[in-house]
Amino acid sequence: MYTKNKIQKSNSKIKRLILGICIFLIGISANAQCAMCRAALSGDSNVKKAEAVNDGIVFLMIIPYLLVAIIGFLIYKMYKSKQQKAE
After folding, report:
1. Which of 14, 15, 64, 77 lies at 20 to 30 Å from 23 by C-alpha?
2. Residue 44 in contact with residue 52, Cβ under 8 Å?
3. What is the CA radius of gyration of the chain?
């Protein structure tokens, strides 16, 4: 029983490490733009337009993250209520 718990703890540490690396790598690739956006926004005269496009992309990304967070919270809440009913 002791070795099983020890193995589970080491597996959870490895999973956390892999998750941290994946989150770090996702942040690195976030600077990319499509070729058409880069061509339309290149140059010094389009600074305001480039900032507006970047802000729009960020706002569009908020909705999927909120949906995932809400669904995750609801699943967590249902899991906790099932645990309390089982006790």
Report:
1. 77
2. no
3. 21
Reported as a single tens digit per residue, the pLDDT across 32-75 is 567 777 777 777 777 788 788 888 888 888 989 999 999 999 99
The CA distance from 21 to 37, in Å, is: 29
CB 53 within 8 A of CB 37: yes
CA distance 50 to 53: 5
Element (H, E) at 51: helix 47-86
- 38 sits in which H/E element: helix 35-41
Residue 60, token pair as written in the block: 């569009």
Q: Quote the longest CA-to-CA distance of the chain.
A: 67
53/60 Cα distance (integer angstroms)? 11
